[in-house]
Amino acid sequence: MDTILDFLKKLFDASDFMPRWKCGRWNESTGWIYILSDINIGISYLAIPLMIFFFVRRRKDIPFAKVFVLFSFFIIFCSLSHLADAIMFWHPLYRFNAIILLITALLSSATVLVLYKVLPEALHFKSPTQLQKIIDEQTQALKVSNKKLRESEQQFKALINNNPDIIMMIGKDLKYKFINESLGLITDRDIEKYIGKTPMEVLPESETNKAFFIESLQGVFATGKGAHYELKTKTDRKGDAYFDISIIPLQDENGEVNNVLTLSKDITLIRNNEQQLISTIDRLEKLSKRLEYKRNVLQDFAYIVSHNLRSPTGNLMSLQDVYRRTTDPEMKEEILTKFFAVADQLSNTVQNLSEVVNINQSLEVHRDELRFETVLQNLITSLSEQITASKAVITYDFSECEQISYPKMYLESVLLNMLTNAIKYASPDRTPEISFVSHRAASGLISLECSDNGLGIDLKKYGGKVFTLNKTFHNNPDARGIGLFITKHQIRSLGGSITIESEPNKGTKFIIKFNEIEVL
Amino acid sequence: MIKNKIDSVCIIDDDLIYQFLAKEEITYTNLVSKVMFFDDGAQAIKYITSKLDTSDIALLPDVIFLDINMPIMDGWEFLEAYLPLKPRIGKNIVIYVVSSSIDMRDLDRARNISAVSDYIIKPISSNRLVSIFTELLS
Q1: ipTM of the complex
Q2: Which of B20, B8, B94, B128 is nearest to A342 (CA)?
Q3: Measured distance CA(A437)–CA(A416) in Å, rounded
């Protein structure tokens, strides 16, 4: 302890030693080489940490900064030891010098230790050459991938632009960001005129279409769910066109929808084909209705042949047989009476049938522009005697459909049959009331309703047989069952129909539809 | 005991000329005691029902000649109304459908009804009647 205290007390005491000039036989030049070299080394050693300090301060990313600090202190003390060594020539402060050397020694050991520890890590650091090589390699790789990116971008652009669908990207501000070249398929306007604008500003659509589009866009932005709809519109290049429009949300990495893609697929051809298909089906339906009609006519004829021709003919044959074998003159007379009655009936039937054949054969019947009121008034005038006798009250309302393009003879025959039937089958208990009302449906169907308050027909018993030949349902001597048969065929030959609603002792209503199907 | 005449034959037909002729032809065969007529199916059903109610089975016809096309109740409707009555009738009534219709559908329909023996196309000859009656009598 005493030794250390003594050492520290005499730290700057040079009295125990000889100045170096006096110790040994120094000549001037040797001494000064020694001194100047020491000073030079000392100053240079001081400059090194300054530069390191400067370097470390400028290069903030320098690794192992502490090693540099340690090294700097080590150099500083090296410098001090050399300077102290030079001073020794005059002031032999060996104790002080010993302290400096000790510190230097400690610092050097510490530096060696730290360097030794840091060395493996430092070895990992790439040398500038290595780094340059890496940079070169990476630059090359970057060039390659840039090229690939450009290629893929080109392919993508080609793909997008050659896609026949119109593809657009629209931002949250509803402004167009991108539109592919397919826009040119439907419009003459430049794509650039769209970019940065909103659909409201640039779309050549109707306000309704635009509003719907904007609404759909806003909906997709709000919900993040895609939308899909069909649009009919007018285009510069294709005229009326149909589009199938999909709005697809584009999510960023946070899941937010900042852009949407719209795909507009031109489905005009499909829609037009569909329309054509529908009209073809429509035509086929009409055709099948016409065939159905022809089939009905043929069926009616088969029925007429068996019931109205075969039946009386069979009777005639049988009457002949019975006549031949009968000897009783009275009986013969009776058979002959019946024979003539059947012959009359048959002749009548044949006459009516030829009329119906004529109606069904005349494909091109001349149509007249007829006013219901005029035709009915003319009939009322010509039937005035009958009408007056029956005291019938006739009313009509043709306001919904005043006229019709129809063969004059047919319309007259229809109205005449309705009128005479109503008078013939009037109830004796009440004043006959006959009314005519015309209708025109949205489909263009023209119909006529004729109702009376007469005897009526029990349709449960006679339904379906009302319009057949020689059918009568009343004990009326005038009834012959011909009128309605002819009327039905006239109406039907022009694609119409006649139906009946009736209740015994309440009245009858005939409904005539004039143009249910188109006939050639 | 072998009968030499059929008790009664029934004609259901609205054609009065045909009724007259059928009566003549049936009488001519000399194989039938009595012929009765109904203008439509409803009248015939009414008659049959009334005889069943009073148990006058003997008054029911043995043969029915049924027309198809008649007002009020046609031949098909008659057959429909007749079938439920059949179990109550203690004897076999032979039914022939007689029509001027040569429509195959009518023929098929008639032949598919078990109660119908055959379909005869008008006019019906006396020869056909004789063969029908003699077969029934034997």
Answers
A1: 0.85
A2: B20
A3: 15
The residue type of A292 is E
For chain B, domain boundaries: 6-137
d(CA A374, CA A395): 14
How far apart are the C-alpha atoms of B136 and B130, rounded to whole Å?
Answer: 10
Look at B71 and A318 and tell me if their CB atoms are within 8 Å.
Answer: no
pTM of the model: 0.52
Residue B78, number of CB atoms within 10 A of its CB: 26
Q: Which residue has the tokens 């004897």?
A: B91
CATH fourth-level superfamily of B6-137: Response regulator (3.40.50.2300)
CB contact under 8 A, A302 and B103: yes
**Per-residue model confidence as pLDDT tens digits over A358-411:** 777 766 678 889 999 999 999 899 888 888 888 999 999 999 999 999 988 888
Q: How close A461 comes to chain B (CA, Å)?
A: 5
Helices and strands, counts by H and E, chain B: 5, 5
Query: CB–CB of B15 and A317 under 8 A?
Result: no
Check B100 against A322: CB less than 8 A apart.
no
Of A306, A342, A461, the CB nearest to B103: A306
Mind listing the pLDDT tens digit for each residue in A32-83?
999 999 999 999 999 988 888 888 888 877 777 788 888 889 999 999 999 9
